Structure formats: C-alpha cells, structure tokens
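[audit] Reproducing an earlier prediction to check determinism. Same input, same settings, fresh worker. If the tokens differ from the archived copy the diff job will pick it up downstream; this log only records the rerun itself.
[audit] input (371 residues):
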Amino acid sequence: MDGKRVKSLLVAVFSLFLTFISFPVSAQEHGGHSAQKKEAKKVKFDANEVIFGHVLDNYEFHFLTYESKDGEEHHVSIPLPVILYSKDRKKLSVFSSSRFHHGHEAYEGYRKEGLKIVSTTPAEKFYDFSLTRNVVQMIISLILLVWIMITVANRYKKGEGVQTAPKGLQGFIEPVITFVRDDVGKPNLGKNYRKYMPYLLTVFFFILINNLVGLIPGTANVTGNIAFTLVLGVISFIVILFSSNSHYWGHIFWPPGVPLGVKFIMIPVEIMSIFTKPFALIIRLFANMIAGHIIIICLISLIFIFGALSKGVGWGFSPISVGFTIFIYFIEILVAFLQAYIFTNLTAVFVGQAFEGGHEDVDKHEDAVIV
C-alpha cells in the first residue's frame, strides 16, 4: 500500500513538472502592442534553447549572458576559429566566430543561424573545418592525458614509487591503473591481458578525462556527442575483429551443437551480434552522459521558468532547484568514473570473446586469471 502511495506521489509531481514546463509564458498587456511585445521578450525563457545550446556543439565556449542597465544583452564567451572552404568561390575563409556577433551579423558571405553556419548565397556549397568547442575540448583532454601519463612515467623512471610509496599525482593514478589491470584486463583477457592494456588504459582515461572536464560549467559535453562515442565504438569494433580467430567465426557461421533447422535462425542472430556489440558501447556512453547534463540544465531552468510566472515563486524554488542540482552533480562525478569503467570493461569482454577458443582454451584462461 505504501509503495502505491509513493508511486502515485511521484506521478503527481512529474505531471506537475510537465505542466509547468509546457505552460506558455507571455507578457501582460501594458497599454500598447509594442509595450506588450517588449515585455514578452523580456520575460520569455526558452528552456529548449538553453538545454540544446548546452548539449550540442557550438563555435564558442559560452558562459553566461547578462543585461546592462540600458537593456542591451552582453555575452561572456570565448570565440573559436571558423574555417570554411567555399567550393563555388574556391575560397578559404578563416576568422573568429565573434565576427557573427552571436548570429546578428554576416561575415564574408556566411552567417550563423542557431548552432549552424549557412551561406548568404542560396545553394552555395562549402565545407566546414572549424574548430568547434567539442574539437577544442577533445584536444585539451588529449593534452591532459599525455601530460599525466608522461609525468607519472618519468617518476617511475627516476625510481619514485618503485622502492617507495607513490606520491601526489602518481599516487592517484597508480591505483586506477592497477584496478583496470586486475579487475578489467586479467579477468576478461587472461594471459593476453598485457597485449591490450595500453589500449584499455587509453580508452579508460580518455573517456574519464572528457567526462570530468565536461562537468565544468561552460565547457562542452564531448562524451554526450554521438560522433565522439561512434568513433570510440568503431575503434573497439576494429580491435575486436582483429583479435578474433577461426573458432570465433566458426561459432558465428555454423554454431556447434545446434539442430540444423535452428542453425538457419541462429546464424543471422550471431551475425547481427557482431554489430550490436559496438552499437551497445556507442549508445550506452552517449545516452548516459547526455542524460545527466540535460537533467542538470532542466533543474536550473526551473528557476527561470517559475520566475517568469512570479518572481516570488522563482526565488522560493531556487534553494530546492540548487539543492537537487548539487546532488545530481555529485552523482554525475560518480557516473563519469562508472561509464569510463563500463565502456572499458565491455570492450575487454568483447575482445576476450573474440579470441577465446574451445573448452581447453577456456580452462587455460581460467588458470591464467587465478594466477
């Protein structure tokens, strides 16, 4: 009975939340049509624009927007380089994204519409090689990864952490490396774990660093971009295929111990499983990382949505919204580590399945794990 009451309460709260989200916010009449338009523009808050502006890619790092006393909006952001090549004009254009003035002006025959750059000439074909915030942040994460690993490696070369306990950054990284080796590599790859450890450690730390950097306000949600997870999934797919053996393909194209009639059903299923494994890696990481960011932005947006209805309600709801946001933020830190582990672990599982042989090899694999 208590469980049903809790479920009913959750349904009621969620319904109330959707009602407020979908409630159209409009300005009150103040004498004239122009005054009404001005007031509507002032109080209107577009949650969709804020949410998708955060989770999607952009040509700048945008931190905040504020309004001065004269009513003019000012944006605090870091513009990024725009690199465009026009196929029709045979021209390469390189300039700062600030030239667009946040979509209000065109520059060199291009203008920004929402989160896209379009040509002012209809049907003009051009290629976009711009350094967007996802690209820049990936480069920053890569630099951090290389710097961390080189720093730790140099300390081991000097003898630090070999005869003595590791310190500082080395003391934080070593247990993580040991964890990936003992709980991911050895159980899933057996005696072959050393061969795959460089790849597994690179994937783990690259995803982890991108997850953590993406939690900094104003940064990009790189791991919540399907293109990023797609590339990681394709790389893992290639590693899995190159790790396979004849026994692996024999089980796929002619499953042993299965009646002949069932084989014709199992073979398409087994072939499909080759592609569903990397697909699961791609979607799992993408969905989990983008979901957390959307929840955080939605909780913050509730302050402005309620504030548009009534300033008192907005201020009153602020502590609740901020409290839930902080709670979800700490959960996201845990998710950042968890998703890096899951992607790495599943990759190791799929690779282990690819080169695993018959029952004799399974026994050897288990012996290697025990050792």
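[audit] rerun output stored. Observation attached for the diff report: Residues 1-43, 358-371 have pLDDT under 50 and may be disordered.
[audit] end
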